[in-house]
Amino acid sequence: MGKVVMYGSVSVDGFIADEDDRPGPLFDWLLGGDVPFDDSGALKVSRESYAYTRPYWDGIGATIAGRHVFDLTDGWDGTPPAGVDHVVVVTHRPPPEGWDAEAPFHFVDGVGAAVATARELAGNRVVEVAAGDVGGQALAAGLVDEVRMDVVPVVLGSGKRYFGSVHAQHLLEGPDEVVQGDRVLHLRYRVRR
Questions:
Q1: Domain boundaries, the chain
Q2: Which long-range contacts (CB under 8 A, 24 or more apart) does 87-93 make?
Q3: Among the four given CATH numbers 3.30.390.50, 3.40.430.10, 1.20.58.630, 1.10.10.10, the one describing domain 4-190
Q4: Name one GO molecular function term (predicted).
Q5: What is the CB neighbour count within 10 angstroms for residue 152?
Q6: What is the pTM of this model?
């Protein structure tokens, strides 16, 4: 089985979006570089960010996100983001009316079921858990192997927290990797067991 990784871009004060779910400049590092990140040409990053991030993104077999993110993105129009094969959506509600049942999205109730489903779908590839409430729930349940964060030099002051509503202490190892990109610091930690 592949490892389960909690991932997201984050402000230096620990937020992944403001109170209105706007990320502000948290993704600017994906636009201001000189290396095309994918075939679209829309994303361009620094060489350091490309060398660190591209292999990770290529290794993702399934992404886990909450229903809130799914709804905010309009379900990515039925196409998983960043070339991921499958998206597992944690929700207590059924798929939206008229949703294409053939789209590679799987709707499950609870983070435990989401991780189990995503592991099965991903095989030996990485299971990515979006930062925020769902990621925090997975971390609190002991289901996360690694935390990766792209720390952006901005202070949001308030908003949606990287670890969601986790209030208990969780120890991490390392950092195992620290890579400085252009307007971003990439960090990777193993979760201490």
A1: 4-190
A2: 87/62, 87/63, 88/62, 88/63, 88/64, 88/114, 88/117, 88/118, 88/121, 89/64, 89/65, 89/114, 90/64, 90/65, 90/66, 90/114, 90/134, 90/137, 91/66, 91/67, 92/67, 93/67
A3: 3.40.430.10
A4: 5-amino-6-(5-phosphoribosylamino)uracil reductase activity
A5: 22
A6: 0.95
